[in-house]
């Protein structure tokens, strides 16, 4: 069924407000280097910039190392065929081009200049675009009308030594090709035998048919219709060459006549072009790609009324099988740019097709499952191609495209280590990947551990388990009712098997029940826990069950807290697991990965107002944990006071904590008490103490109290553009255990699992 969409007037108002506030437009140019002092200015511009210029004169290929060109695409249009709006001109096309730039950046990390040119003469337009080659690493042609678009792209490919890609043609062709391969697989029809009827003869339609023929569709089995009807041999002696290539000998003159017995309908024309009675005349299990936007040639619900056996794809996000160019263009450019491809050739496009088609047969990622709750996302009639927000797209398609460029001999910067390249792309997808790389590497190298998860029935946990198993991190132990877990696995479309892929501890029937409640009673009998209370808790409280399994050696670590209150879980951890030897307190540290920096904040969850001794202990525990990330800890002990500027009780407490840390660890980079700006700016810090032992930017921020830590963490998490959070990381427990929060994502569960695995393996 179609989802409820906002009324047109409301959508219009919201769209205009979105484009206008807080800053007009959707893109901006941001410097990638600091320009904070005279030296920076001298390096960025005169005289330092001359050295970069000389290097490029000596070796033109060096432009990829000293400028942004290798990651810069021009999205170029003359506004002659914008979306479904027609020839609205280059100025009105600018919002669309800015939007395309946003997609490049968001999905593939590619920078874009949107370029709108007031030129309708194809040859002049070619000259203008070709002259930009020194500026750009690639050209994405957009919204240029047919048939000029074919000519313009072909000439630019001849003249330029960088990738040129007309997305309206090839993007749709690539996505539809992956979809048709899988639709034929679902129906069992042979690609060389199917009869195809196409409504539309524009750039996208012709490119789709060309690529389908490369896949194996027979040219003589294709009938194309335009606004005048069937394109047949002899219809028009002056027919455009792209259309004439599909003129065939046939008695059919209308779409109604041509559609009789067709296996496949491809629509890139107009709303309502495929009438219900036409669909009724198609062959068994008809494949209908109704790709007109915003309203397809036939609506899916109407199509199913006429033909319940129909397999549908549209260009809309509110129906299954959306043929969306964002599945292709960011990633094909990513792969092309990363190997310095001189063009995008047929081998690269075909590699993209095959990779997309294969992805649809794999189990969907956790992120995709969470983004589309309640949908059946497994290979079949309703899932022929991946979803646009599948994070694996860049890690699968870009390497496939890059490899095809290298194999076909057009890569000027071949990738030597493709596995490392995939890992780099994965880090782009998951911002936590950069900071977590060392942790994941250690987790995979370590001995096999058993991690117990009390929230075994939680859907996020079940999705995380698939990733945990794929990454080879641990063999999970889930606490929960097996029938509930199986039902929820089935609901999310998971192929995991209870008892085979992971162990399940059933609170109602586990064979260790007596051992666990007996040990729990012994542990807590002097704190008011009777035998009956112990028995009840070991049936009803999964965190207590998990903690006892860890205590008794049935598990090596524990992740809990996806449901319920943090302090509830922490209390059970403290009572059962206890504190590490010599440790007087526990604390929680959050790891923030923001653009350009990694930061750790303590104590975000546990100690309301720690004293100086506790702050020092928290600092030492934080240092030990930060080193697991292969990051050199640089501590700032924060306060409202800057190096004695205030004599308040809070400021003196922090200053005393600094003295304790320095006395016990004189080689540690630590300073305070100081304000937040001093912690993050060496220049500000030098104004107060040029001999500060803390160099550069602090990466471990020890806050004076719980309020300061928690507020700072959540503000930074929400305002840091594209930032990601890892944690809370529990410090000071006797065994490897972490208590998460109810808002934790699937990815955070996976990251925290890697942490606890490393900790468990080391112990």
UniProtKB/TrEMBL annotation:
Xref: InterPro entries? Aminoacid_DH-like_N_sf, Malate_Decarboxylase, Malic_N_dom, Malic_N_dom_sf, Malic_NAD-bd, Malic_NAD-bd_bact_type, ME_PTA, NAD(P)-bd_dom_sf
Domain Malic enzyme N-terminal residues, every copy: 24-157
Kindly indicate where the leader peptide sits in this chain. none
Which segments constitute the Malic enzyme NAD-binding domain?
169-406
UniProt keyword annotation of Flavoprotein present: no
Keywords assigned by UniProt?
A: Multifunctional enzyme, Oxidoreductase
Q: Which domain of life is it from?
A: Bacteria
Return the CDD domains for the record.
NAD_bind_2_malic_enz
Which family, according to UniProt? In the C-terminal section; belongs to the phosphate acetyltransferase and butyryltransferase family.
Its name, as the record gives it, is: NADP-dependent malic enzyme
According to its UniProt entry, this protein's organism is Candidatus Accumulibacter contiguus
Taxonomic classification, please? Bacteria, Pseudomonadati, Pseudomonadota, Betaproteobacteria, Candidatus Accumulibacter
């Amino acid at each position: 069924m179609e989802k409820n969409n906002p009324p047109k007037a409301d959508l219009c108002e919201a769209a205009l407000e979105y484009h206008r506030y807080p800053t007009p437009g959707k893109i901006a140019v941001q410097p990638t280097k600091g320009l904070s002092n005279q030296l920076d200015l001298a390096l960025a511009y005169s005289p330092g910039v001359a050295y970069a210029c000389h290097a490029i004169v000596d070796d033109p290929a060096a432009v990829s190392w000293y400028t942004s060109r290798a990651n810069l695409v021009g999205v170029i249009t003359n506004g002659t065929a914008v979306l479904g709006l027609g020839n609205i001109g280059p100025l009105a096309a600018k919002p669309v081009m800015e939007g395309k730039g946003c997609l490049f950046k968001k999905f593939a990390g590619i920078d874009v200049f949107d370029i709108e040119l007031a030129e309708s003469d194809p040859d002049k337009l070619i000259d203008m675009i070709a002259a930009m080659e020194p500026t750009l690493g690639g050209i994405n042609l957009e919204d240029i009308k047919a048939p000029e678009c074919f000519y313009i792209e072909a000439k630019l490919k001849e003249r330029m030594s960088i990738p040129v890609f007309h997305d309206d043609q090839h993007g749709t062709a690539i996505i539809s090709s992956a979809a048709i391969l899988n639709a034929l697989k679902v129906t069992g029809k042979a690609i060389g035998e199917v009869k195809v009827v196409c409504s539309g003869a524009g750039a996208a339609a012709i490119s789709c048919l060309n690529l389908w023929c490369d896949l194996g569709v027979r040219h003589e089995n294709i009938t194309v219709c335009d606004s005048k009807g069937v394109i047949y041999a002899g219809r028009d002696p002056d027919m455009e060459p792209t259309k004439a290539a599909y003129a065939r000998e046939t008695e059919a003159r209308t779409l109604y006549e041509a559609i009789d017995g067709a296996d496949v309908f491809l629509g890139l024309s107009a709303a309502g072009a495929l009438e219900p009675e036409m669909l009724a005349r198609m062959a068994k299990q008809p494949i209908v790609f109704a790709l007109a936007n915003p309203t397809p040639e036939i609506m899916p619900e109407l199509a199913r009324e006429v033909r319940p056996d129909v397999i549908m794809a549209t260009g809309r996000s509110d129906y299954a099988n959306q043929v969306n160019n964002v599945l292709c263009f960011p990633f094909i450019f990513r792969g092309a740019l990363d190997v310095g491809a001189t063009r995008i050739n047929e081998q690269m496009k075909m590699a993209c097709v095959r990779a997309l088609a294969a992805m649809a047969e794999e189990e969907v990622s956790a992120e995709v499952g969470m983004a589309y709750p309640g949908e059946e996302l497994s290979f079949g009639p309703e899932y022929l191609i991946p979803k646009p927000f599948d994070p694996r797209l860049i890690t699968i398609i870009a390497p496939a495209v890059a490899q095809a460029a290298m194999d076909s001999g057009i890569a000027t910067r071949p990738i030597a280590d493709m596995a490392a390249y995939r890992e780099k792309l994965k880090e782009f997808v998951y911002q936590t990947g950069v900071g977590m790389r060392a942790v994941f590497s250690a987790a995979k190298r370590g001995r096999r551990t058993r991690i117990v998860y009390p929230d075994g029935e939680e859907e996020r946990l079940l999705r995380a388990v698939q990733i945990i198993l794929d990454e080879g991190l641990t063999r999970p132990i889930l606490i929960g009712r097996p029938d509930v877990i199986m039902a929820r696995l089935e609901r999310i479309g998971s192929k995991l098997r209870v008892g085979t892929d992971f162990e399940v501890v059933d609170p109602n029937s586990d064979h260790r029940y007596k051992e666990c409640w007996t040990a729990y009673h012994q542990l807590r009998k002097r704190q008011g826990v009777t035998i009956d209370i112990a028995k009840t808790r070991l049936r009803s409280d999964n965190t207590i069950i998990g903690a006892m399994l860890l205590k008794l050696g049935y598990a090596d670590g524990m992740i809990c807290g996806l449901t319920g209150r943090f302090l509830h879980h922490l209390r059970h951890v403290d009572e059962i697991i206890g504190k590490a030897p010599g440790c007087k307190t526990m604390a929680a540290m959050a790891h923030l990965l923001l653009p350009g920096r990694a930061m750790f904040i303590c104590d975000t969850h546990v100690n309301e107002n720690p004293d100086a001794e506790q702050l020092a202990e928290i600092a030492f525990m934080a240092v030990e944990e930060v080193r697991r990330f292969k990051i050199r800890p640089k501590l700032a002990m924060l306060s409202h006071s800057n190096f004695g500027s205030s004599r308040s009780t809070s400021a003196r407490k922090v200053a005393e904590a600094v003295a304790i840390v320095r006395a016990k660890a004189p080689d540690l980079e630590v300073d305070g008490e100081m304000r937040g700006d001093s912690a993050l700016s060496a220049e500000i810090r030098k104004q107060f103490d040029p001999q500060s032992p803390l160099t550069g930017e602090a990466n471990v921020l020890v806050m004076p109290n719980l309020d300061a830590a928690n507020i700072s963490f959540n503000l930074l998490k929400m305002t840091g553009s594209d930032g990601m959070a890892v944690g809370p990381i529990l410090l000071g427990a006797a065994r490897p255990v972490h208590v998460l929060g109810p808002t934790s994502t699937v990815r955070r569960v996976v990251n925290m699992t890697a942490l606890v695995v490393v900790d468990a393996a080391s112990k």
